[in-house]
Amino acid sequence: MEEPTSQLSDEEFVDNFPTMDEERIQLDDPEFDVDLLPLEFEETVHCSPKEEEVNAKKMQKTTTKNTVQAFHLRRSLNLLDKLDEEKSLCIQKTRGELHVCRQRMDLLTKQLESLAAEIATEREANNMAAVGRLQAASRCRQKELESEKDLQSKITALLKDSENAMWHIEMQKGQFEEVRKHSEEEAEARQRSLEVHAAQQLQKEKEALEKVERNRLLRARKSLHVQKELGLRHQKLVDDAQRNHRVAVKFLKASLGRIREREQKEEMESRKHMRRRMDAVLALKNNITASRETLKKFQTWGQKKAELATQKALNEKEVILAQGGDAFKHLSHQRRHQELEAQRRAFEEEQKLRKQEIVSRILKEEAEEEHRRKRQHPPCKATDKWTLRDRTWKYISDFCEGKTVKTDTHLLENEMAFQPKPFCLLKAISSESVQVDLGASSTEDEILAEPDIPGLWSKEYKSYQLKVPREDMDRKPVGGTKMDKDILARTVERLRSGVVHKQVVSGREFKGRPFNSKPEVIHFKDFDIGKVYKKKITLINATYTINYCKLVGVEEELKDFIHIDFDPPGPMSAGMSCEVLVTFKPMINKDLEGNVSFLAQTGAFSVPLKCSTKKCSLSLDKELIDFGSYVVGETTSRIITLSNVGGLGTRFKFLLDSESCDMDESQPIIKISSLFTCDDKKSLYEKVMASLAEQPLDGNESSPPDVRSRKGSEKPDETDITAVASAVTMIPNEEPAEITLGEVTEGEIGPFSSIKVPIIFTPVIPGQTQTKFKVMFKNPQCSTLYFRATGIAIDVPVWVPRATVDLKICTYDRLYQDSIVVHTRSKAALRLKFEVCKELRGHIELLPETGYIQAQSSYSVQLKFLPRHSLPEDAGKYFDPVSRVLEAPMTIWVADQIKPVEFTVQAIVTTSDLEISPSEINFGYCTIYEAIRTELNISNLSLLPQEFGFVGLPKYVDIQPNDGFGTILPLETLQLDVIFQPTKAKEYRFELVCKSEINRYFKVSCLAVGVHPPLELSHYQIKFSATSLYDTTVSTLYVINSHLSMNKLIHSVPRIGSEDASPVGPTSFEFLLPPNSPITISPSVGTVLPGKKCLVQVVFQPVLPHEIILKEATQILNKEIENNTFRKEPAQKKELWKQSLSVVRVHNRDRPSRVSTPHTAEMQKPVVLSASSNEYHTAQATLARAFQGKFEKFVVPCVIASGDLKDRKASEPLSFSPHNTLYLELWCPAVAPSIVVTSNNGQTIFNFGDIAVGHRSVKKVTFQNISPEDLALEFSVLNPNGPFVLLNPCSKLCSGEEETLVLCFSPHESILAQETLEIITKRGALTLTLVGTGVASMITCSIEGNTLNMGYVLAREAVSSSFKLQNESSLPIKFWVRLESLSKKRAETRQQLPKFLASREQRTEIVGTQNYNGQSVFSIVPVEGLMFPGKAQEFTVTFSPDHESLYFSDLLQVVLFEKKVSQQILLKGAAREHMMFVEGGDALDVPVESLTVIPALDPEHREEAEEMKPILVTMNYVQFDTDAPTPPATRELQVGCIRTTQPSPRKTVEFSLDNVAWLQHKGFSIEPARGSVERGQTKTINISWAPPADFDPDHPLMVSTLLQLRGDVKETYKVNFVAYVVAGL
After folding, report:
1. List of residues 6+ apart from 25 with CB closer than 8 A
2. What Rg value do the Cα atoms of the chain yield, rounded?
3. Looking at residue 936, what is its pLDDT?
């Protein structure tokens, strides 16, 4: 569904939709084609909608979609208008630029024409210089003209583009012209609808306003009517109140007369009472003072005793420790013993107090019993039974006599009931001078029953028995039997039925009370024991006719106190009366209630009887006292009456509700139960016990005064009790109360009386005040009464908003003004008078002195304060000379106002002096290349900050900071630097003038002498950058000799002040370094020739002092020695304890001696440490970590002398002048290193030691960032061709983190290498020194050619050979020997194609034929070991083939340090099945055997196989072109016999060659042709060939012969000879 839409204004649409900038529509392209509206927009514009309806208000309602489309359409039109304006403006601007460009072109054309004319003229005049100049100008104009033409073309093109864009925009505007008209019509329609809507809304608001106005008038009329009614009612109430007031005044005057008389009497009594109280307070004060002095003495005595006890305990502890005992255990036992002793004494003292208390009670009871015995009859006889009283008395007497008493369980239980368990509580409270009767607290709730018959508690009481006759003993019981009781009841009933009759008169039966009593109740109020009270009552006959009345009596419990006198009147008619006299004689103080019973003819009746003791009935006449409104400063009072309508008086006390008070003052001893509730007793006991546990137990005895006080008196001190009670009950009230009680706050109120207490209201702070009070009574039966008082304080009509006018800080002789505003609340004008205290009238003035302030307005007074120097003497008490504070009271007297308005003028008066010290400055001698700085102190004696400045300074004087200007704070002393830098050599006299902000001048005189030295420095101050410890910073400067001539007119000549000038010539200098400084100057001494300069290098390297490092290292070493000493020898320590114990026993106990152990003697020996020790390096690293930074400033003097150092004699010093001295200032900030080395004991030198060439050694360096920030690391570049390499550089190191660098030393040659590696950060650099020695591992082998041929051996036999390796280096070398056939790569190579498939040149195999059994054919011993420097190692190689082959080979490698292959030895060998062999000739087969095993041939075919063994011998005859004879081609064949251990029938091998002669014919010569070979020997057959005469060089010669070998078997070889003729070079 489509949501309903509402008609919105253009402004709302603009606010709700994004702006044009947000749409980011750019139309800068001149060929811009306006295509912003989609097709549906155009249809909406051109086609009139059929669904529109025109309403009565002519407002067109469109949907939300159409409204949004219209908004976009309007925005597009606005954009087109804006683009149209911009393009128009751009076209106008472009046309203007084109016009200007054309004008410049015209101007340039004219200039060119004029220049051409001038050129022609000058050329005619033959002025070639002018012609060249004009031609150059012409060329410039020509270039400008060309540039202007280019600019014109560009502007023309731009103008054309802009016009094209303008045309496109106009076309688009023409397309949307109808849309624009439609939009304008809609806007006009919308505006008209808004105007109609506004008119309607205005009409509604007018109607609502009229309605509101009518309601307001109605409410006003109603309020007037109500106010009128309230006024009439109020007037009526006022009239009634006035009338009642007049009536009350009459009675009040009469009452006031009586009250005044009573008040006078009470005043006299209160004065007497107050006098007695004052005397008591004075006595109490004296007692408190005396008690305090006594307590101070006791405290002092206790402190001294505690100090002595502490000292004694320390001495005992030292003695016990010297003896080797446990001091803590001993002191614990001693303290426990003291606690037990104190508990025992407290228990004994408590028992004594208990005994005295029991004795006093017994004596008191005996006295009371004796008194009662005198008034009453004593008992006839007492029994012989021991009563509780007798047993108690007997126990006490036995205890006092010291007898052993055996008590029964019942007695012990009674004693335990009286004895309090927490006896420490009594001790704690008595220590605070408060004696508490704990027995009373425990026995308060105990009920002591007294016998009804006196004498039973008497000592002489004895049990007795009455002598009763025998016949009385056989009498029946009092109540009789059951039969007797029944008979008695029937008889009484019969008698009553005969006495009581119903009374019926006129048919009416009387029912109810026959006689009425007047009064109805017999009430005896407020009786006293022993007195007799009588009352008469009248009985009136209330029946219908005659009646009788008879007295029956009273209850049994009232018979002892009530006596009734009644004479029966006989028959009494109706309405008649008779009197009854009731007599009451109270014997006990107790409320009694009962009835007096009578019997009438119509029935029994009774009169109630009450006997009430004296009681308090207290009340207040009001519970709220309203003072009303009073002005602040006034005082008023109200009276509240406390009435007692009871017969018993009591003591009362008025106090605030927040205060507490204990009314029980009659008890001389404070009871714990009165201070604390029963629930709090346990907590009190626990708190006191905790305080006792926390207090140090002072062991043996208590203070003698305390003992005497306990023995001398048993009664507690009233002063201490009062102090404790006040401390417990009274809570101080620090806030001043506006509503207070009057003078009478406590006293006695008698029976049937009243007390008037004044309540005073003194308003202080404006506003409503309320205070609650309470009345407390001593009688516990009387509840506390509460009342409250309220009042409103109104401020005075005239007041000053600023009660204190603070003028801040003022100086003498300066005028200060302020305006004081006075306000009034009064509705009438008031006269004001302003008054200044007479002491300050010469300094302070209030203008005007008198004025009138209008009603409810303000009044301004001008205050003028001009303090003079006589103010401290004139002001007197209002001025404090120490703090310089003036507090002057000012008074404003207001007419008809009792309280004046006061305010205070407060100011701090100070001086404006500045003090400068010193008053005279002598700069001495100063060179023109330096400046002398001296300190000048300027002190501000004022309490105000002052601005100052040194004015009129000469050019050669400067004052810093701030060029001598600044602000000095109150009472502050500033140090200023006066810098004097002379410009030439002369004597100076001048003054420094300081001017303050109030134009006061202070002067300082100055003296100086200027010096011009013959040498000068290129820099007089060097500021080194912040350098870390053990880092280096270098700076350079020059020493210059610029003195070339003595002519002072050319330049200023060197001189001292006004003395003669220095001579021209070589001048020497010397830098004098301070001792122990981190500065190095090179060269420090030299000579500079005139006009020359000398380069000087200054090096700053901060280091830690050697003494501090040595001290720290000594402490570290001592700690290690001490730890090792105490860790190693515990047994020796025990023996030393025994020795020391034996020595201590000999000496005095008070002076224990020390026994020194040999270890302490060892520890006290001075330890000498070297700078290369580990402790020294550890201490150095520790101090570097803890280094906080240091800034040092060095001034290095450079003395100057005339002459050359080379010309002077050895013993003749140069004459250096102290005035011709240059000074070089060095700023040397040393900071803590940002990174430190944590490994290697903090050393920065790393020695790799001796490392073999080609090998490497790795060291790890751990360093830590100890700076508070993260650091980016950079490393200096090591020598790329050097032996040192940093393997793992890092780029960042966080704060507190550690990083480990891996450094590698791999020398390539025998060399002693040293390099530095710098770890560079922004806070400094850490330099690591790398040192190492490269040693060449030189090993020589005894085998020449690195090939070891094992020769021929029989298969399945072994042969061994040895060789040696010599270590020629200075390092021990670790070696490993390995065979190529056993390497890991062997298996990989075997997976490839066989090598025999390649040509001979491509074959690279080293490992030849191997054994079939899998074992290596070659073995070597040893395979690893260590060759020491200069030693040789022998190796044994064993060749053990398991089958026949000629190609056994392997590669032996000697590996050093597991990496470097030092030697490679090729191992070769051959194996034969038989003992003979032939070698030589060309190879006819591959050196690799097949994997298939060739089967053994049988003996029949073996010879054929043997005959087939070929040998190829190739002969290359080299023929040269020269005539010299050519040597023949030669080859060799060797026949050998293998040495074997197997038994063989033949010892030798014979060989022979066939067809030797035929071979000779072919040119071959063989020598020998046959022979024999012994075992283990070989014989060579030499073969030579020379081409015969018939030899054809184009065809090789090929012949063959047989070679036969005979040994254990016969072998035949076919030797094939191939001969070539080769042409030589």
Report:
1. 36, 79
2. 70
3. 92
Which amino acid is present at 895?
Answer: A
Residue 781, pLDDT score: 84
Q: Which of 390, 266, 302 lies closest to 758, judged by CA?
A: 266
Q: What is the pLDDT of residues 572-590, one digit of tens each?
A: 888 899 999 999 999 888 8
pLDDT of residue 955 exceeding 50 = yes
User: Is 419's pLDDT higher than 60?
Assistant: no
- β-bridge partners, 630: 793
Reported residue count of the chain is: 1625
Distances (CA, A) of 156 to 93, 170, 229: 12, 21, 98
Q: What is the distance between the alpha carbons of residues 716 and 723, in angstroms, rounded to a whole number?
A: 12
In angstroms, what CA-CA distances link 356 with 362, 715, 718?
10, 12, 20
Helices (H), 714-826: 718-729
The pLDDT assigned to 968 comes to 92
Strand bridging mode 515-518 / 549-554: unpaired
pLDDT tens digits for 1191-1211? Answer: 999 999 999 888 887 766 555
What is the Cα–Cα distance from 1302 to 651, expressed in whole angstroms? 99
How many whole angstroms separate alpha carbon 1531 and alpha carbon 1617? 10
Q: What is the value of pTM for the model shown?
A: 0.37
Q: Is 1300 helix (H, G, I), strand (E, B) or coil?
A: strand
Residue 799, beta-bridge partner list: 823
Helices (H), 324-422: 327-375, 388-401, 409-418
Burial of residue 438, with CB atoms counted within 10 A of its CB: 0-12 exposed, 13-18 middle, 19 or more buried: buried
- pLDDT of the residue at 480: 59
Euclidean distance between CA atoms 659 and 773, whole angstroms: 9
Chain position carrying tokens 């007898």: 403
Taking the C-alpha atoms of residue 1200 and residue 1094, their distance in angstroms, rounded to an integer, is 14
Residue 971 gets the label, from left (phi > 0), alpha (psi -120 to 50) or beta, of left
The beta-strand segments (E) located in 1203-1244 are: 1221-1231, 1235-1237
Residue-wise pLDDT for 1116-1133, tens only, equals 888 878 777 766 655 555
Distance of alpha carbon 90 from alpha carbon 88, whole angstroms: 5
Give the chain's count of helices (H) and strands (E). 25, 77
Crossing angle of helices 177-323 and 128-175, rounded to 10°: 110
CB-side neighbour CA atoms (13 Å) of 1413: 10
766: nearest Cα among 900, 893, 634: 634
Do residues 663 and 777 lie in contact, with contact meaning Cβ atoms separated by under 8 Å? yes
Q: Two tokens at 1473?
A: 């099945």
DSSP conformation letters of 1002-1025: EEEEEEEEEEE-S-EES-SEEEPP
Q: How many CA atoms lie within 13 A of 1197 on its CB side?
A: 13
β-strands 1460-1472, 1347-1354: how paired? parallel
The secondary structure of residue 53, as a DSSP letter, is -
User: Helix 177-323 vs helix 1130-1146: angle between axes, to the nearest 10 degrees?
Assistant: 50
Tell me the HSE value of 579 on the side-chain side, using a 13 A CA sphere.
4
With H, G, I as helix, E, B as strand and everything else as coil, classify residue 1430.
coil
What three-state secondary structure class fits 499?
A: helix
